[in-house]
Structure formats: structure tokens, C-alpha cells
């Protein structure tokens, strides 16, 4: 959304006219749009209705080194002008995959960055990051600090540790502004990292690996790299994805260090040894297609008429166990027949930009007469969370959540939240009072409306079960 807004301002048009964007459950384009920003998942879904993608003359695939699940599938198309860009990708590998296409290296306009490694391995990267941040603040010239951590828990602990250490330093120490950035933080608090620090203060931003590429903050001169990140990994035995802490790849480390050279010469402090960087870290991050659940992609590829997925020309083929497990799961849901082809149920499931399990739940709810209610639950489940649990107010937020608690199901708890929000006229102040993400709830409302539109296109009977307890247990 942000790049499209910037481009529309530079072109001098209203967002959604000549320049627009399209993400899951949101399309801000028109017939006048000539430049369209979109996610790889949206592009893949567009290929369902328009296999040749005739309305596009060129596709630019940015940050290709991230190797997202949909990116690897979209990358198979060879009948369009495709420009693949990245600062750290394996260019030769992409070139060979597309038939030895030419590679262009464009020099960047960044400033030099000094890389400083730890002399010995760090037992506690969190403690090491806190000490390094304080040392920079007390001994180095002005310039903001960016610290890379794995997730919310580590980020909050780092922020708290820096604030406590600064108090221990006593009076006369220059002020410091510590700002966390993670996905569940309300957007208005995330936006504070772009505000200039008060006079004489130094900003310290503690973020996840989203700040490697997705965020660019002016004034960053120092980067502290913990050397770890969280990756979504699929466990085929459990049949679930989980976020697990892994060492960062060399490509990720280089992306992180580059953050220090955007506005002037900078420094990157790596909390691991040079030997570990050269000999222990992977050159590139393991592609998402080799480590996550493939159910959605298998369903999409089957709908595109690709029958034998075991021989499909993936750039990096996924583990056969993951592929077979995903196909078994789709067969269990009724999306695939015994011989592997797509069933009528599967073709209806493809219409929903949802996980196959959620799509099946929506379709099955028609038989129970509760499509409206299940659409609400599915919309809530499409958000990371709708509850906000601020530090030092955990007990208060937990008490507020208990007001919506349904002993039968967590899904009914989400349903209760939405119903109460609707009865209170979708007010943001009501959300704030009950420790609920107002922005997430507005997104839930938008997603719900679009899901119900798809249900109507499929000629499903959209009804609500109301106070019928037996049907509510079905949810």
C-alpha cells in the first residue's frame, strides 16, 4: 500500500486511478489503472480466471530472494516480460531457470558500512544486544540504532532491558527513545518509528526481520544483528505450521547490514563470529515452498490443470512428504478425488482466497444454515489476532477478554466479539476500552463482506443461526 501511495503522489493522481494496488480482500484499482502493485498471491489467483494474464504487458517481481510460496509458483510463467529484482538473490540460479536469460547488475547508491563481528560466540544474544546498544549510545556519534530480534517477546524484553540499563547509568546520560516494531503492535504505535526523535535524543528501533526490506527509516547509522529470525515451518507429522527460531542466512545478514548505509556511512555490529557467518550460516534462506504447508498451492495448481505435481517444474522442489501430505489433506477435505483430480467441492473451495480448511468450513456451513456466522469466524481467523495485550496491563486485558468468552469454542468467542462490536456501531473507542485492535476489526468487517460476496456468487444460502444453540455448536 505504501509504495503505491508514493507512486501515485509522484505521478500526481489519486490512488486507485492510474496507480493502484491489490492485496488479499482489498482491490484499489480502476479501468484507468496502468501501474498496479500486488502481492504474489493475488497474481497467482488472477491466473485462475485469466491464465495468460493478457492485461499485463510486464511483471516486476521485487525482493525475489525472499522466495515466498506464491513467488515460486508465479515464477514458473514464461510467456510474459518478467523482471526479477533483488539485492541479494542468487541471480545465476534464476537466470538458468528461465532459460539463461540476461542478468543486469545495477550499482546501488548506498553508503559504506563497516561490519564488526563478535570475537567469541554469544551465549545470550538478547543480553549482548542490550549491552551493545548502550555502548553505542554512550560512545558513538549521533545516529539512530536498529536492532534485529526474533519476535514480540524478545523485542519487548530488549526494550525493557535498554531502558533499565540507561537508568542505572545515572544522570547526565543523553536521552534515548526506545521503539518496538512487531506485527501485533497497533499501527499508530508502529508509525512512531518514522517520527523524528526529540532534540538531543537518539532513537533505538527494535524490530523483527520485517525491517530487512519492508521498512526504510531515515537516520539509521547503526545496526545490531542478533543473527536469528523466526521462520514458518511445516511439520508433516503434526500437520501444522509453526514459527521457529532459526539462524539468519548470509543473504538476510547482508540485507540487515545494508540498513545502516541508507542515509550515510554506518556500522553493523553482528553478535556472532566471522567464522560462524562464513561456515555455519546458509547462503540463502530456505525457500518457503520447501518448509511450509502446500495445501493452498496444490489446490491452485490442480485448478490450473496441472495433474502430476510430483514432476512439476519447481525451481526448488518441495519435500515429497510435504507434497503428498498436502494432497492427502485435500483428499480428506473432499477437494481431491481418489485418482487425484479436482472434485466439484474442490473447484468451489478454490474460489475463496482462504486456507482450504477454512474454505471447506464455509461451504459446509450452508448445510447447517449458519453461513453468515461462519463467515464472521473465518474473517476473524484471517487476522493474526484481534486482541491487544499491552505490557503491564495484562490482567486488565485478560479480564476484558473474559467478557466475550464462550466455553464451547474459541471460535464462538471471536463471534461474540464481532457481534458486540456491531451492536456498538463499529466504534473504535469501544475496541480500545475492551483491548481489541480497532484496525484489525475494521479489516475483519471488510474481509467478511468480501467472503459473503463470494458466497453469493456461488449461489450459497447466506443465513444466520441466531440463538439456535445446536447450530452454534456446529461453528
Automatic annotation (TrEMBL):
Please indicate if the UniProt record lists Nucleotide-binding as a keyword.
yes
Name the EC number(s).
3.6.4.13
List UniProt keywords, sorted A-Z: ATP-binding, Helicase, Hydrolase, mRNA processing, mRNA splicing, Nucleotide-binding, Nucleus
Q: Which GO terms describe its molecular function?
A: 3'-5' RNA helicase activity; ATP binding; hydrolase activity; RNA binding
Mostly located where?
Answer: nucleus
The GO cellular component terms are: nucleus
Helicase C-terminal domain location: 129-305
The subcellular localization recorded is: Nucleus
Domain of life of the source: Eukaryota
Domain Helicase ATP-binding as annotated: residue spans: 1-107
Per UniProt, what is one Pfam family of this protein?
HA2_C
The record ties this protein, via InterPro entries, to: DNA/RNA_helicase_DEAH_CS (IPR002464), HA2_WH (IPR048333), Helicase-assoc_dom (IPR007502), Helicase_ATP-bd (IPR014001), Helicase_C-like (IPR001650), P-loop_NTPase (IPR027417)
Coiled coil start-end? none
| One Gene Ontology biological process | mRNA splicing, via spliceosome
Q: Which reaction does it catalyse?
A: ATP + H2O = ADP + phosphate + H(+)
Family of the protein in this entry: Belongs to the DEAD box helicase family. DEAH subfamily. PRP16 sub-subfamily.
Protein name in UniProt: RNA helicase
Q: Which organism is it from?
A: Emiliania huxleyi (strain CCMP1516)
